[in-house]
Amino acid sequence: MKKLPEVTLAFWIMKIAATTLGETAADLFSQTLELGYFLTTIALFLVFVMTLAVQLRSRRYNPFLYWTVILSTSMAGTTMSDFMNRDASSAYLTTGTSSLGRGPQGLGLGYPAGAAILVSLLIAVFIAWKPTGQTFAIRDIVNFRGEALFWSAILVSNTLGTSMGDFLTKPATSGGLDLGTPGSSAVLLTALLGLMAYAHTQERKTPRNDEAPRPAETG
């Protein structure tokens, strides 16, 4: 029994909306409300864990549950990226404190190091995924282990997306590549189109289960 949606045009529209909402909501808590990256990361990661637990316990695909988890991964991923990469200088610490707490401070790893760590984590998820024998085809994931691996990859990839976006756009003085938004968008769009073309080619080479030839009937 399927627990993940069919990938249609509506799916991609909702994915973009949920991802964007996740980023703005994470910034709302960490920056606008001044909870800081540390406290916001903890809070939103707990939200992700709770929504994922409900999704994993579900026996069938539920649009509300699925998109709630997508939103929670985007929110948690955005604030986790900010917390890893951004400055932890004393200027951002609450008066009279010397460690992380309330305020917009982060670990200060920098954009290159943050992106490298997240790439390594994503590779680790796929390395752990392969020997389990679970399918990489989203439409065929139907059990707990496969879905847990899928959502782990989604969380890390969302975090990486935010971190690599900052790495491309931020100035060199901040540890970025200083491509700016036009240059970064062009690079990412080119990569995305190339990968989409590759995925389309591979999809055409792989027959779907419902397209498999039927055995010859005997009279």
Structure characterization notes:
The protein is mainly α and 219 residues long. The chain has one domain (9-93, 100-206). It has 6 helices and no strands. The protein has helices spanning 9-32, 36-57, 63-85, 111-129, 144-169, 180-205. Helix 1 (9-32) crosses helix 3 (63-85) and helix 2 (36-57) packs antiparallel against helix 3. The two termini are 34 Å apart.
Jot down its keywords:
219 residues; mainly alpha
List the helices and strands and how they pair.
Layout: H1 9-32, H2 36-57, H3 63-85, H4 111-129, H5 144-169, H6 180-205
Helix pairs in contact: 1-2, 1-3, 2-3, 3-5, 4-5
Task: Write a brief caption for the model.
The chain is an all-alpha fold and 219 residues long. The protein has helices at 9-32, 36-57, 63-85, 111-129, 144-169, 180-205. It has one domain (9-93, 100-206).
